[in-house]
Amino acid sequence: MTQPLIGVDLVPFSRVRELLDPGIGPLLRRYLSAEELTVSRTPDGAPDQARIAGRLAAKEAVFKLLGAVGRPVPWQGIEVLRGPGGRPGIRLSGRAAELARDAGLGPIDVSISHDAGFAIAVAASSTSVDRPRASDHPHASDRPRASDHPRASDDPRASARSLVPERPLSFDHPISQQSATPKGMP
After folding, report:
1. Angle at CA 86, nearest 5°, toward 180 and 122?
2. Which residues pair with residue 7 across a beta bridge?
3. How far is residue 174's CA from residue 162's CA, in Å, rounded to a whole number?
4. Which of 2, 50, 77, 109 could in theory staple to 171 by disulfide, Cβ–Cβ 3.0 to 4.6 A?
């Protein structure tokens, strides 16, 4: 059985300004690949804070899908590049690709948005690997349960809808976990 996964992250532009501070050196190069830095520039060649913040948020969101809690983020192994029509796409390599294989991840889809000095990214995938559920957590009894909330089936308008898909989620652009570039990406 496949299980849908979602990762999300929020990055303030102020963090990017700190990373761009010449006094702390080329720190941004630890987080973004040369290709990512190239596509994160304004038309006049200056670093684009919104694009950089969006890429950092997307990398963190993808990392959350890998289920590697407590391990360092493989920043260079998760690349957020331009896909068809400018849509962001993910390219995994090295340790990130290894973690994705271990997690049994399917294609990864990512969405990035910027507003009011923040960038947010959501990454989605599915896995066939059994992962602990929130209800398996030792303090799960302290948390609200689905049965504590109205169900969709209690609403006659929702009877034809299912809150959980019966088949795995699929995405338009396949992403390989073996360092290959996604279809349509440079």
Report:
1. 75
2. 123
3. 25
4. 109
The string of pLDDT tens digits covering residues 103-121 is 999 999 999 999 999 999 9
**How far is the C-alpha of 145 from the C-alpha of 38, rounded, in Å?**
46
User: What span, in angstroms and rounded, lies between the C-alpha atoms of 112 and 79?
Assistant: 14
Residues 81 and 183 sit within 8 Å (Cβ to Cβ): no
User: Taking Cα atoms as reference points, which of 182, 177, 185, 163 lies closest to residue 106?
Assistant: 177
Q: What is the pLDDT of residues 20-40, one digit of tens each?
A: 988 776 789 999 999 999 999
Percentage of the residues of the chain whose pLDDT score is greater than 90: 58
Angle at 33 between CA 29 and CA 39, to 5 degrees: 105
* pLDDT, tens digit (0-9, with 9 covering 90-100), for 30-75: 999 999 999 999 999 999 999 999 999 999 999 999 988 889 999 9
Residues 65 and 140: their CA atoms lie apart, in Å, by 21
Which of 89, 77, 92 lies closest to 173, judged by CA? 89
How far is residue 171's CA from residue 99's CA, in Å, rounded to a whole number? 20
